[in-house]
Amino acid sequence: MNLEKTDVLVVGGSLVGLSAAVFLAARGVRPIVVERHAGSSPHPRAIGYTRRTMELFRGVGLGDAIPQAPRDHRVRRVRVRSLAGAWFEESSWSSAAPAPSEERPPCSPVNAAGIAQDRLEPMLRARAIELGADVRTRTELVSFEQDAAGVTAVLRGHDGTETTVRAAHLVAADGARSTIRDALGIGRSGRGYLRTARSVLFRAPLDAYLREGIVQFSIDQPGFQAFLASYGDGRWVLIFSDDVDRDEADLRTMIMRAIGRDDMPIEIVATGRWEICALIADRFSAGRVFLAGDAAHALPPNRGGFGANTGIEDAHNLAWKLASVIDGVSSPALLDTYDAERRPIAWLRHQQIFARDDFKAFADESARAAPIYDDDAMELGQLYRSAAVLGAGPDLPPARHPDAWRGQPGTRAPHAWLERDGARLSTLDLFGRGWVLVTGEGEGERWSAAAAAARDALGIDVTVEVLLPDVCASFGLEEGGASLVRPDGYVAWRAPPPPIDAKTALRDALAQVALATRG
């Protein structure tokens, strides 16, 4: 049996696993990624990607490759008798959306994107390989064991050849039915099983029904309730409200019934059957194994993008921490903050799904009473609390509009446009690689000396960025203050007024948030 070694083995080569590979490889960690299928599923699932996901993809060179939606784009749904029949009321996703008079300037340099999962995955796969990841399709995990020093996994290729891989860490992105999670004995909690869904993917020339900007349709007929949605590329999915196995003739009949016409050419592409549930893993890690995506949190499909996008953010959060530990910058204690930061986010999104109208039929009393956070808060204003953040107290809400946070530690650093060497860039372009200290004009020399002293004491490089007063104000800084931003673009520490001893203040803060109580 062949023996290989790697820093990270990623099991699962779909959206989350491939995103993890890209984010790791972009930081110089070249993982092995295994996927038991030959490629993407012919029946795509996810289609909507939030601005935060697009920010993360932009940071690894994929921003221009993925077509973005207009700034004011939102996923619209309407109840109809059929596409060609009567249209009734439109339903909103977030009742907390601001009225037009309350709209703020854009809080992100990018817009959301609508692209089918089977169109996005090849882009991620190609980028991961370009950056140095070893992506192996038609390869499955047979077994794994872990000890204090690493994980030993047995892989089997499509030809039956088995390979043993010794990895320092394993990322389980193997889906809602994760065999890795089950092998670790990690349970799940949450609303639980909701229903079993059947679906059919088909092509039909129905673009004329998309002119109003509505892409989702709740079919409501006597004896026939279903859900119809466009993938924006000529493909549509019809999801039935029952768990009935239908042959091709029956499927065509049901499709025509949903369309309300029988004169359309219809090409059936694929069918699907899956369980819709809401379950969060009780732990997101066990030793050197980390759960990500649906393996960590299976959530029902929703207009907030709380499924795939949450998993992609898992991968980004985990990638910089793994890279920092592998590079010897941080102790393994930093990896404990993955569960501390990401599991509460999964629970928040679980709550928000059932607080909204789309899933209120499945909600309990606590969900119905929960406050609803608007899309800006959920996408760009979530709060992390962990040992890798200083100053995110229990009195703070779990999410808030990013402008309201004003650079609060534990939140994504704010976006503002800058001019550098004749080019326009976002403050977010300053982050995403290493540790960055933001301060105002006239303070660069003072904080650069503090950063140099911290490097000498801790062995951690910190880049100092001097920004204009109005940009510093968006970080909540007073004159002479500074803000420390993590490699994932989240604020780790902030000194709004200038400390008396900048060197000591920065060194002590960096020792806590970057080293995470190094032993």
Automatic annotation (TrEMBL):
The keyword DNA damage does not apply. InterPro entries: FAD-bd (IPR002938), FAD/NAD-bd_sf (IPR036188), RIFMO-like (IPR050641). Its cofactor is FAD. It comes from the Bacteria. Residues 5-348 form the FAD-binding domain. GO terms for molecular function: FAD binding; oxidoreductase activity, acting on paired donors, with incorporation or reduction of molecular oxygen, NAD(P)H as one donor, and incorporation of one atom of oxygen. This is FAD-dependent monooxygenase. It comes from Polyangium jinanense. Keywords: FAD, Flavoprotein, Monooxygenase, Oxidoreductase. Pfam families: FAD_binding_3 (PF01494), Rng_hyd_C (PF21274). The keyword Oxidoreductase applies.
